[in-house]
Amino acid sequence: MEYQTEFLERIDRTPTAVSYRFKMPGGLSFAAGQYMLVDLGNAMAHPLTLSSCPEEAEFIEFTKRMTGSPFCRRLESLEKGETISVKGPAGKFICDDSNETLVMIAGGIGITPVRSILTSLENKKGTLRTVILIYGNLNREDIAFRDELENLRLPDYHLIHVLSDTTGMRNAYKGFINADIIAEEVPKSSTAHYMISGPPVMVEVIGKALASINVAEDRIRTDVFLGYD
């Protein structure tokens, strides 16, 4: 379905990632982890994942890495109260309701559906499952939603940072997410569910890493962010 919505505000998340909030359209229903087609007019439409969760009922939020593209420049030009169109929702990168261990692996801007899912779980206050988030970035300034993610109130939640540059970060792995880090941080279990979100190369590499430690394909869901290296 197509909805009209009003621009509310922008929030800088990192030096390159910005959240854009819009008024919750009447009648819109979505699941945490889904995306919508954001239409800014003049043939500028782009699929963006919702970084907000359904329980945040006053607004919808999209968070994008700003690349200088015509679409990004149009986003930057939005004025409060301006109306745009959004279509959807769509996407199957959705968390199930089981109590089995949930391992979320995100790279860079791939954190957006993960933030939506984890915030939704926090708001529901009913999950008993173990939740492990392994989050890869360039450096500490590049960590979107850092404060929120480090202070989530879930009963058995573990956040692991993996950074190319660990300057100023205690207890972060240096380098890139790999099979050794996953094996070290995730308890051995044949029933854990894995959700991978990030650029195509990252998702492919993590998929191979999981295969190397014998994680079955049917235990893995992916969300590939096209257009990013």
Topology:
Blueprint: E1 2-12, E2 17-23, E3 35-39, E4 45-49, E5 59-65, H1 70-77, E6 83-90, E7 102-107, H2 111-124, E8 131-137, H3 146-150, E9 157-163, E10 173-174, H4 179-185, E11 193-198, H5 200-212, E12 220-224
Parallel strand pairs: 7-8, 7-11, 8-9, 9-10, 11-12
Antiparallel strand pairs: 1-2, 1-6, 2-5, 3-4, 3-6
What does the model show?
- This protein is α/β, with parallel strands linked by helices.
- The protein folds into 2 domains: 2-90, Translation factors (Elongation Factor Tu (Ef-tu), domain 3), CATH 2.40.30.10; 102-224, Nucleotide-binding domain of ferredoxin-NADP reductase (FNR) module (Rossmann fold, 3-Layer(aba) Sandwich).
- The chain has 5 helices and 12 strands.
- The chain has a 6-stranded antiparallel beta sheet with strand order 4-3-6-1-2-5, with helices on one face. The protein has a 6-stranded parallel beta sheet with strand order 10-9-8-7-11-12, sandwiched between helices.
- 37% of the residues are buried.
- The model has no long low-confidence stretch (mean pLDDT 94).
In helices, the fraction of residues equals 10-25%
Mean pLDDT: 94
Give the CA-CA distance, first to last residue.
31 Å
The main sheet orders its strands as 4-3-6-1-2-5
CATH topology of the largest domain: Rossmann fold
- CATH superfamily of the largest domain, please? Nucleotide-binding domain of ferredoxin-NADP reductase (FNR) module
What attributes does this structure have?
229 residues; 2 domains; six-stranded antiparallel sheet; six-stranded parallel sheet
Summarize the structure.
The chain has 229 residues and is α/β, with parallel strands linked by helices.
